[in-house]
Design brief:
heterodimer; A: mainly alpha; ABC transporter involved in vitamin B12 uptake, BtuC; two-stranded antiparallel ribbon; 71% helix; B: mainly alpha; two-stranded antiparallel sheet; 68% helix; disordered C terminus
Chain lengths: 309, 363
């Protein structure tokens, strides 16, 4: 029984990291007022770049850096279109998602299924010896530990630093932020690109640690789930962890049912649940907002900024 | 050096043509770069694609076959976008249309007189697409939940339901374990024309184009939804029932996407199986954008995109280059559309420190 719980919990964490990293990146972008629907494409391109560099014999750090750079480049494209050209952010994001998917499918064709780097579980000394907890939290891949660090860091920057204040100001009221001398364009560019970096890292996690090797569309919609999770989290990194664990938990249950042959809930229902739960949360969030209990959503989300004159 | 956009006060002539030329120019350029990275000759590759799509009558009939679902999903996106609704869920509504048609063909109509089978399929396909669009419609109208995310998430749910059905309850009992439903009876197959795979769906799509064009341009209802699209608040103050129109438009959109799914399963595959959902719903977004969200332009760009898809297949079979280049070109097309639109609305100006004020520089 304990063993089963440890097994499920460990896989829950493992399955939630990719989507969590992407969601935290998107929180920054949306907090600054930029809706980036291209997360799926940025994750895929990041995953492919990481896997390809690993296969070519590059060291893990280079593979990670390459994956993050690939995500950043696509994000920069989105930033250029939505900030500089003031294009429709929905369409620009969709275009990035389609483009990223196409690029990774096309360029990744020759290396499908080949594995270069495999970031295995790395038990942390001492911590992994703690009974139950050690096995669940500290017998994971290095990227999982990196995510443990990124979560509080992201939350600290966003809510306890001047930079975070500026980001939120730009997302809530770009015109006033501009008046008091904040560079709206620069902040939005930086946040969007930071989102791309984390989406690329999330993709790398999938192709280097979670299921090593490149497969077409290996993100399987996680980029879209990440976007929904941002709303679920009411734009807060800590609450995004909750959403990601929920998603990871459902994935872990699938594994558990497959491994043991017990099927308490039919698998196809389990597969649907993350999407349905997310829709449920969207309804709840909008309901709370109606009641005036939510002042958290960035008010300038999706609204291009330009100084008149 | 900085980039700066300034508003244009005069519209360039031939706006639509300019947008198309810039979009396709950019897409071809991006595609060329990708071909070069892959180590292929772009001129040769584009030549093969063009030859495959428009070089033979067989190829061209296949382009039309692809254009049928693209026209219907393109119309579905365009009608919703007229009201500023983004129906990203055409893929799911397409799948549901196929499910509705399959149910009608295999479980509802086997004993029906043959003349009534096709109408039943068409109605069931459209109704199933509407049903799947009703969920995001209600959520948007009554809970203000963004239709962008709900329609998109429901695509995944629809595909999971379809997979479950043809792997499970609807699997062909005589299929020797092959995942897929039983073959449709003859009466449930859409008639084909011109010695090709072109099927009845083409005429449905053309009829839908004409009807939508007339409704949008020449009816009171069309006027209403265009007004709502220009300014929902103003429309509300003018006494228009915006919520009711949201639901109505989403239902029409869903029905069109459902018809696309119905015509694809009953016109081409003749059974529910893997490979049915290949992204026609997403392609419809690109068709609708390039068409400027105007129904009468949709068929033209559906043909163009159909040509791209067939060209991509040709590329794969004769040059062994992945057909996913089409997806790259589609993404680039959409970006090209956005860029050209921005350039028509604004004038892009490069500001260096030596040109301090915009008024001194008459470009």
């Amino acid at each position: 029984m304990i063993d089963d719980i440890v097994f499920i919990s460990q896989i829950t964490i493992k399955s939630s990291i990719g989507v969590l990293l992407a969601a935290i990146g998107e929180i920054f972008a949306e907090r600054s007022g930029i809706l980036n629907l291209g997360v799926e494409g940025m994750m895929l391109v990041g995953a492919l770049t990481g896997a390809a560099i690993g296969l070519a014999g590059g060291p893990p750090l280079l593979a990670l850096g390459g994956g993050m750079l690939a995500g950043a480049l696509l994000a920069m494209l989105h930033a250029f279109f939505s900030i500089t050209l003031r294009a429709d952010q929905t369409l620009s994001g969709l275009a990035i998602a389609i483009l990223g998917g196409g690029l990774s499918n096309f360029l990744g064709r020759p290396i499908i299924g080949e594995v270069g780097i495999r970031l295995k579980a790395f038990p942390l000394p001492y911590l992994s010896d703690i009974p139950v907890i050690g096995e669940i939290f500290f017998n994971q891949s290095v990227l999982v530990y990196l995510a443990y660090l990124i979560i509080p860091f992201a939350s600290y920057v966003l809510f306890h630093t001047r930079t975070g204040l500026k980001i939120r100001a730009v997302g809530d009221d770009a015109v006033s932020a501009d008046v008091i001398g904040i560079n709206v364009t620069a902040i939005r560019y930086c946040c969007t690109i930071f989102g791309g970096i984390l989406a690329g890292l999330g993709g790398c996690y999938l192709s280097l640690a979670y299921t090593p090797g490149w497969k077409e569309n290996m993100t399987a919609g996680q980029g879209w789930i990440a976007i929904a999770m941002v709303i679920f989290s009411l734009w807060s990194p800590y609450r995004a962890v909750l959403g990601a664990l929920l998603f990871g938990g459902l994935t872990a249950l699938q594994f558990f049912f497959q491994a043991t042959g017990i099927e308490v809930i039919p698998v196809y229902i389990l597969l649907m649940l993350p999407y349905l739960l997310t829709i449920g949360v969207l309804i709840l969030v909008m309901h709370l907002k109606k009641g005036g209990k939510d002042g958290k959503s960035p008010r300038c989300l999706g609204v291009p900024f330009h100084r008149e004159g | 050096m900085r980039l700066r956009l300034e508003k244009r006060y005069t519209k360039p002539q031939n706006e639509q043509l300019l947008i198309a030329v810039i979009s396709f120019g950019l897409a071809l350029l991006v595609g060329s770069i990708i071909f070069l990275i892959y180590g292929a000759n772009p001129f040769l590759a584009y030549g093969v694609m063009f030859q495959g799509a428009f070089g033979s009558s067989l190829g061209f009939t296949e382009v039309i076959v692809k254009a049928i679902p693209l026209m219907l999903t393109g119309l579905a996106v365009a009608i919703a976008a007229t009201m500023l609704l983004w129906n990203i869920g055409c893929e799911g509504q397409f799948v549901f249309g196929a499910l509705g048609a399959t149910w009608a063909a295999l479980y509802l109509t086997p004993d029906w007189p043959s003349y009534s089978v096709l109408p039943a399929l068409i109605i069931c396909g459209a109704a199933a697409g509407m049903l799947w669009a009703l969920i995001p419609a209600i959520l948007k109208a009554h809970f203000q939940v963004s239709e962008i995310l709900t329609t998109l998430l429901l695509n995944y749910v629809a595909i999971i339901i379809m997979d479950h059905l043809y792997f499970g309850p609807w699997r062909d009992p005589d299929g020797m374990g092959f995942p897929g439903s039983a073959l449709f009876p003859d009466a449930a197959a859409l008639p084909r024309f011109f010695d090709s795979r072109i099927h009845l769906g083409l005429f449905l799509a053309i009829a839908a184009t004409i009807v939508l064009h007339i409704l949008l341009r020449h009816s009171k209802w069309g006027f209403r939804i265009r007004v709502i699209g220009k300014g929902p608040m103003a429309a509300q103050y003018a006494g228009m029932k915006v919520n009711r129109e949201i639901i109505r438009v989403m239902l029409i959109s869903g029905a069109l996407a459902g018809l696309a799914g119905m015509s694809e399963v009953a016109g081409i595959h003749l059974r529910l199986q893997e490979g049915l959902s290949v992204g026609y719903g997403y392609d419809g977004i690109i068709v609708a954008c390039l068409a400027g969200f105007r129904p009468k332009m949709v068929p033209i760009f559906a043909l163009v995109l159909g040509g791209l898809i067939i060209g991509g297949e040709q590329l794969q079979s004769s040059m062994h280059l992945p057909a996913s280049i089409v997806q790259v070109l589609e993404g680039a097309l959409l970006l090209g559309f956005l860029a050209s639109e921005a350039l028509l609305r604004f004038r892009l100006r490069i500001i260096t420190s030596s040109s301090p004020s915009p008024s001194t520089n008459n470009a």
